[in-house]
Amino acid sequence: MKLPLSWLRDFVELQADWDARELARKLTAAGLEVESIAAAAGAFSGVVVGRIISTQRHPQADKLQVCQVVTGDTGGSGGAGGADGSAAAPLQIVCGAPNARPGLVSALARVGARLPGEVTIKAATLRGVSSQGMLCSARELGLSDAADGIIELPDDAPLGTDLRSYLDLDDSILEVNVTPNRGDAMSVLGVARDVVALTGSALLTPARLRALASRSVAGTAAGTAAGDARAAANTGAVAVTLQPMAGAPRLLAQALVGIDSTRATPLWLRERLRRAGLRSIGPVVDVTNYVMLELGQPMHAYDRARLSGGLAARGARAGERLRLLDGTEIALDADALVIADDESAVGLAGIMGGERTAISAGSTDVVFEAAWFKPAAIAGRARRYGLQTDASQRFERGVDWRGQERALALATQLLLDIAGGRAGALTIAELPDELPRITPVPLRSRQLQRLLGLHVAPQEVERRLRALGMDVHAGQAAGRRPGNGESAWSVTPPSWRFDIQIEPDLIEEVVRIGGLDAIEERPPMMAAMPRMPASSEVGEQVVMRTLAARGYQEVITYGFVDPSLQQQLFAMLPGGVPPAIDIANPIAADLSVMRSSLLPGLIAVARENLRRQQQRVRIFEIANRFIIEPSLAGGVREQKMLAGLALGSRLPEQWGSPATPVDFYDVSGDLSALFALGGGLAQFAFEPIAAGYLHPGRAARIVRDGLPLGVVGELHPSLVSALDFTVAPLLFEFDYSAAFRANLAQFREISRFPQIRRDISFTVPMDVAFATLSERVSVAAGSLLKQLSAFDVYQGKGVETGRKSIALGLILQHFSRTLTDDEADRVVQAVLQDLGSNLDARIRE
To answer: In what helix (H) or strand (E) does residue 650 lie, and over which residues does it extend?
Structure first.
């Protein structure tokens, strides 16, 4: 949320030493993080307020005018100007703006002025006519992205005044990151309440709000849940009907007649909207946006001539459709809350209005609507329809359920001042049984000190809470008897705070107003209870440190992924794409299903890194995947997985070795280092597979004691091309718990007798894996085999086609005596015979 400092000063008097940076620091320490501070306008100088006193057509160009402009000072011409500028020597300005006209007060950049973009204004001759400056548009001054003409300033703007000073363009704008629980802080008034609590000053009431008390409305009609016809009988009243349990317990409607929608919104209001990040549209819409930004109450305006009857808040009907203001037509879900007239839905409640009743330049009679919707009735609906509006953000978090009258009164006053007309009747409809029930929350000083680790004086606790608008009563806290020396309070939160429900919520308020940075750092006090470490699973920190030591970085991705990427990745699996779990309210269209694998998230991260010219990537993630299993309660199983991705060169760029791409053996070596952590590396094996999305011949299944855990391999060439990878990434993913089940350390006596090594070399068919060889050698050699290693693998010249040569090293040892050469030779012969019989092994000559 963008917060102009000048707007905030309307509600609170800041301390003299609180500049924008100090205020940002205080707000951040109080839980409202200020992400940035920016100026209200870009750098420019030499621009003053000037008045056009006459215009005439340029003799050589039909679209240009020659304007005479006075600034109330000498303007560089030597003559002194009067107070109204009439005696000042005029400056001749050639201007092409369509709105340049006599009497218009605008922004004049005099000779020597510097505009955004390093533009310096010089005296010029345009088609034979001299020009002594430039009349500026908002776009040329960096105040807008577009402009239909030069800036139009109020008639009473003081001529000759520096424009930056007149418009307060050195104002600071704070970008505040409001957390989801603080919907009350999504307005100038909401932030001001926190600043008041921080400064200890009083909350100010701006003049525009003080004036509401003196302005009377034509009349008030009471609407009901049933739509009382008497409301419509009152002159100008709008009948309002509320459907019980639909999610709209309160809705107010204010009629205004005879307004002029073609009038321009005042500059001060347009500037405030611009600084808050909104563009000016027209007086009616600008007023509703202004009230939302200032008071936090979203509003909507309807063209009454396009309304059929009154307004109703109800659930959507079967098959009902609605065309929104942005032109999008949506099919309404059964749980959607809509605002409707007697004909059909005219708006998606709390999110966006409908096109049929939209305000236009010809609107003369309008209806303002201000409502309180239950947050649960709005939450997720905007994202479901691919929308995200300022109104939905506020209604989802909760707005003040008692603030609709004030918002309507301010909007009515502003619009009447801008566009004329008169106010009709105000209709108030509510369902009292569905409105929030405010209940006191207990607070104890002992619990406050226990959770915070510091003492806050009881008087200070009460001051901070009352400064936030809470009703505080000292004494017994909600039936809890305080102990010796303990203070207790019963605290009733205000109507705009939906996040105060339990005692820790109040404790959080006390500490954040005191400043989170005021808490003294102390070492934790706890009892040291030694115990046996859990040895059933390798610790997650150990796994992560091992991967980090081998060059990997941890990433954390969303638990939901792009369905098209997941479909593309797993379409090549033999069984087809596993069914995905759809998300009811996705945060984005490309994050609409729960992940059935961690790999889509890692692939998306790798692609993003490649787009940012990071050619060497090593990443991993430990997280859950979600698998549909109808046999389980809830139908979904969560499985903890470890997944990783490696691409680019094997080693970082260096002079000592060539840039060699990472390959299958590099990544399988990383995995072997992980599997060794649990002391059971010998239980693991890599078996060749064709895993669909992995490269045939460069992929393997990870197996432990015969049970498959996951896969490792190079991405399939077709997917490398489809996903725009320049090189093929290596991927792995496996069941975390099964892979890191640790073997308990056991004592084993070491043999005192020497080892004997025997090497054998033979050829086997290409599809024979080392795991299969190892299994057969272990069976044939029996208990004398202590270690087996493959020290050479070769295929090519000298080896017949379809076969490969393998050289194995066998370490033999007896526990109680020295082995003889004859015994070692018999073991080797047994191994060779077994391999020849079962795996078609042939001794190399």
So the answer is: none
Alpha helices, H only, 716-798: 717-722, 736-739, 770-781
Residues 6 or more apart whose Cβ sits within 8 Å of residue 107:
47, 48, 49, 50, 135, 136, 141, 150, 151, 153, 163
The DSSP code sequence of 681-692 is GGGEEEEE---S
* Phi, psi for 62 (deg, rounded to 5): -70, -30
- pLDDT surpasses 80 at 82: no
| 466 and 608 inside one domain | no
Helices (H), 552-614: 563-570, 599-611
Q: Which residue has the tokens 């006596």?
A: 749
Encoded amino acid at 729, one letter: P
10 within domain boundaries: yes
**Shared-domain flag, residues 13 and 58:** no
Over residues 262-275, the mean pLDDT reads 92
Query: What confidence score (pLDDT) does residue 529 get?
Result: 65
CA distance 89 to 93: 13
Contact 841, 763 (CB under 8 A): yes
Residue 113 lies in a domain: yes
The vertex-423 CA angle with 420 and 426, nearest 5°, equals: 155
* Unique residue bearing structure tokens 């020295």: 818
Question: Do the Cβ atoms of 665 and 542 come closer than 8 Å?
Answer: no
Contact 729, 603 (CB under 8 A): yes
User: Where is pLDDT greater, at 535 or 673?
Assistant: 673
Supply the pLDDT for residue 845: 67
Distance (Å, rounded) from C-alpha 753 to C-alpha 17? 83
- Say how far apart CA 581 and CA 594 lie, in whole Å: 5
User: Is the residue at 734 inside a domain?
Assistant: yes
Output the pLDDT for position 815.
Answer: 83
Q: Are residues 465 and 593 in the same domain?
A: no
Compute the Cα dihedral for 502, 507, 509, 512 and give only its sign. Answer: negative
Q: Domain boundary residue among 389, 414, 434?
A: 434
- Whether residues 68 and 191 share a domain: the answer is no
**580, 594 contact by CB (below 8 A):** yes
d(C-alpha 758, C-alpha 760), whole Å? 7
Report the alpha-carbon distance of residue 167 to residue 152 in Å, rounded. 12
At residue 397 the predicted structure's pLDDT band, cuts being 50, 70 and 90, is: very high
Tokens of 839: 């795996």
Dihedral over Cα of 717, 723, 724, 730: its sign: negative
Q: Are residues 365 and 296 in the same domain?
A: yes
pLDDT of 228 reads 40
Domain boundary among 166, 182, 217: 166
Spatial separation of the C-alpha atoms in residues 436 and 183, rounded to whole Å: 16
The secondary structure element, H or E, covering residue 8 is helix 5-8
Q: Residues 423-451: what's their mean pLDDT?
A: 92
Q: What was the pLDDT predicted at 484?
A: 60
Domain count, the chain: 6
Query: Are 34 and 72 in a shared domain?
Result: no
For 653, the domain range is 540-739
Q: 553-554 and 617-628 as β-strands: parallel, antiparallel, unpaired?
A: parallel
Q: Do 200 and 340 share a domain, yes or no?
A: no
Give the predicted TM-score (pTM) of the model. 0.70
Q: Is residue 585 part of a domain?
A: yes
495-503: average pLDDT? 93
Q: Which of 200-204, 408-412, 533-537, 650-654 is most confident?
A: 408-412
Residue 835: which CATH number? 3.30.70.380
Unique residue bearing structure tokens 């005596």: 817
Domain of residue 398, CATH code: 3.50.40.10
Query: Is the CB of residue 339 less than 8 Å from the CB of residue 311?
Result: yes
- Same-domain pairing of 152 and 128: yes
Structure tokens at 410: 């301010």
